[in-house]
């Protein structure tokens, strides 16, 4: 079967969202990957079907209950081929990277738990071996957008999803550097010319100009990536191909 994302959420109608369009949407329609949603509330019991409760120790907001989330995760694990990773999207998580996306793309699929509110009871994350993943140092209103980011970054690395695998290898992070600038016709736009070297037809000069641009941009904008690149550290999917 195809790589599948199984998403546990209070808002299944948020999926596929943007993933239903363009490259990922075509690949989804062609069966190159699969998407399943589980409504978290279906695993709640009682008249009110409560999924959350107030935090132990006091404080603001609400916490998703261990019993409800536990039943949802156990249902999601049913029929998962082998054991595939279970991820809770949260700003406390390990950072999403090209390396992690590549690893996830090589599994049979992934179960994604989307939170709302202040978080999830820690006991269910610990007992079900859930990996927490963050898409960046900012706080979103819920995990759904983060889950879509993770799915997009992962699905496009599945063989045959991206038409041209050369573009994966050329893009940012494939070599640990930011991408060089791109241009297309017309040769002059509002008086601004395309750099002469790109029109020279000299492939070696083009390649070294692009390398210089990528290095200068990386030094300027991402000193952290530049240091890793220089020290030969395999970060951000540098080792990915
Ligand atoms: N949920 C809320 N904020 C998030 C973030 N930055 N990354 C992943 N999941 C989140």
Automatic annotation (TrEMBL):
Residues 220-232 have a biased composition (Basic and acidic residues). Signal peptide: none annotated. It is found in: Cytoplasm. Keywords: Cytoplasm, Methyltransferase, S-adenosyl-L-methionine, Transferase, tRNA processing. Residues 6-227 form the tRNA methyltransferase TRMD/TRM10-type domain. S-adenosyl-L-methionine binds at residues 115, 135-140. It is an enzyme of class 2 (transferase). One of its GO terms (molecular function) is tRNA (guanine(37)-N1)-methyltransferase activity. It comes from the Bacteria. It catalyses: guanosine(37) in tRNA + S-adenosyl-L-methionine = N(1)-methylguanosine(37) in tRNA + S-adenosyl-L-homocysteine + H(+). Residues 220-241 are annotated as: Disordered. Specifically methylates guanosine-37 in various tRNAs. Homodimer. This is tRNA (guanine-N(1)-)-methyltransferase. It comes from Halovulum marinum. The chain holds residues 32 to 272 of 285 of the full protein.
């Amino acid at each position: 079967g195809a790589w599948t994302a199984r998403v546990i959420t209070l808002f299944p109608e948020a999926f596929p969202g943007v993933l239903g369009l363009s490259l990922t949407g075509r690949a989804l329609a062609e069966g190159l990957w699969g998407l399943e949603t589980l409504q978290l509330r279906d695993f709640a019991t009682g008249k009110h079907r409560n999924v959350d409760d107030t935090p132990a120790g006091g404080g603001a907001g609400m916490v998703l209950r261990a019993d409800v989330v536990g039943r949802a995760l156990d249902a999601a694990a049913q029929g998962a081929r082998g054991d595939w990773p279970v991820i809770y999207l949260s700003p406390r998580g390990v950072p999403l990277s090209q390396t992690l996306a590549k690893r996830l793309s090589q599994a049979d699929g992934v179960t994604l738990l989307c939170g709302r509110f202040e978080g999830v009871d820690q006991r269910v994350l610990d007992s079900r071996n859930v990996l927490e993943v963050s898409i960046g140092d900012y706080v979103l209103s819920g995990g759904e957008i983060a889950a879509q980011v993770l799915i997009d970054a992962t699905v496009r690395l599945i063989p045959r999803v991206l038409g041209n695998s050369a573009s994966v290898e050329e893009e940012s992070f494939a070599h640990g550097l930011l991408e060089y600038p791109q241009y297309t016709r017309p040769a002059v736009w509002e008086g601004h010319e395309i750099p002469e070297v790109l029109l020279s037809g000299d492939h070696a000069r083009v390649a070294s100009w692009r390398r210089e641009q990528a290095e200068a941009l990386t030094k300027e904008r991402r000193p952290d990536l530049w240091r890793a690149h220089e020290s030969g550290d395999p970060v951000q999917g540098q080792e990915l191909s």
